[in-house]
Write a structure and sequence with these properties.
alpha/beta, Rossmann fold, 2 domains, six-stranded parallel beta sheet, four-stranded parallel beta sheet, 11 helices, binds D-glutamic acid
C-alpha cells in the first residue's frame, strides 16, 4: 500500500496523548486522528453497561466518518470492558487496547510489593483481577482507585495550577510497608497519570518504579502497521494530526498551545456526542 496509514487514538480526555506521543515517535508519517470524549469525561465513575454502550456508539460514528486502519483505545477504563465488543463488531479492524501494566510491574519488583494506580472503574474490573491472578500471584498487590487524578491531569494540561497536596493525597495509598519490605513498583493504570509522573516522583514518600505502558502499546500498534503497510520510511514526515472533542468545545488558548506541542490541530467543533 502506498498511502500512509490512518490511526484513530481514543480516550475520555487528554490522557491518551501519552500513548499518542509514543506511537508518533515510532511512526511519524501517518495520518492521526485523536478523539477526546470530553463530553463523557471522566470514565472512571461510569457504570459498565453504559460505558460500553457509549464507546460503541462513538466508535460507530468515528469509524464510519474517518475509516481508520487501526484504532488505539488509549484508555484503561474503557479497554478493560469494551475491547471484546469492539472486536466482535468490527472483526476486520485491528484494535489495540491499554490495560493495567500488572505483568511488567510483577516482573520488575524486587520487594514483591506492587501497587496498581488506576481509576475507580479500572481497579474494580474483573479484567484487572484476572491480570493479578495470572501475572502477580507471587506479589502483594495494592489496588488504588483514584477519584481525582485524571481530573487533576486534565487541569494540568489546561495550564491550570494543580496543588501538590492534592496529588500527594491521591498517590499516598500506593505506598505500603510490611515486615521490612515496601512497595517498589507502581503500575500507572490510567493513561492520564504519566502526564503527572514528574510530580509523582517529586512527591513520593520514597522512590519507586512508575510503570507507564505507553511505549509497549506503541510498539504493538506499530507492529500491526508494519504487517499491513510496511515500516515507516526513515526520516518520515508528519502527514496529518488532528484532534476532536466530543463536546464540540473549542480548546482554550493554554490547552491549544499544549496540543500544538503534540503537533495536533483542532479538526472539528461540532459535537460528536
Ligand atoms: N485515561 C483513562 C484511563 O486510562 C481514564 C480517565 C477517566 O476518564 O476517568 O483509564
Amino acid at each position: 500500500m502506498t498511502r500512509p496509514p490512518k490511526l484513530l487514538v481514543f480516550d475520555s480526555g487528554l490522557g491518551g496523548l501519552t500513548v499518542f506521543a509514543e506511537i508518533v515517535k515510532l511512526r511519524p508519517s501517518a495520518d492521526y486522528l485523536y478523539c477526546a470524549d470530553d463530553a463523557g469525561f471522566p470514565y472512571g465513575s461510569w457504570k459498565e453497561p453504559e460505558l460500553v454502550q457509549r464507546v460503541m456508539d462513538l466508535m460507530e460514528r468515528l469509524i464510519a466518518e474517518h475509516a481508520p486502519d487501526i484504532v488505539v483505545i488509549a484508555c484503561n477504563t474503557a479497554s478493560t470492558i469494551v475491547l471484546p465488543h469492539l472486536r466482535v463488531h468490527w472483526p476486520a479492524l485491528p484494535f489495540v487496547g491499554t490495560v493495567p501494566a500488572i505483568k511488567p510491574a510483577a516482573e520488575r519488583t524486587t520487594s514483591k510489593m506492587i501497587s496498581v494506580l488506576g481509576t475507580q472503574g479500572t481497579v474494580a474490573r474483573d479484567y484487572t483481577q484476572n491480570l493479578i491472578a495470572q501475572f502477580a500471584a507471587h506479589c502483594s498487590v495494592t489496588l488504588v482507585g483514584s477519584k481525582r487524578l485524571a481530573s487533576l491531569a486534565e487541569s494540568y494540561m489546561h495550564g491550570e495550577s494543580v496543588r501538590d497536596v492534592d496529588i500527594a493525597a491521591e498517590i499516598a495509598p500506593c505506598f505500603k510497608e510490611e515486615g521490612g519490605r515496601r512497595t517498589d513498583a507502581v503500575a500507572l493504570a490510567c493513561t492520564h497519570y504519566p502526564l503527572l509522573v514528574d510530580e509523582f516522583k517529586r512527591l513520593a514518600p520514597w522512590p519507586v518504579e512508575w510503570i507507564d505502558p505507553a511505549p509497549a502499546i506503541a510498539r504493538r500498534a506499530d507492529q500491526l502497521l508494519v504487517e499491513r503497510f510496511g515500516a515507516d520510511a526513515p526520516g518520515g514526515q508528519p502527514v496529518s494530526r488532528s484532534i476532536i472533542f466530543t463536546s464540540g468545545a473549542r480548546p482554550p488558548a493554554p490547552l491549544a498551545a499544549t496540543l500544538a506541542r503534540y503537533g495536533l490541530a483542532l479538526t472539528a467543533v461540532a459535537p460528536t456526542a
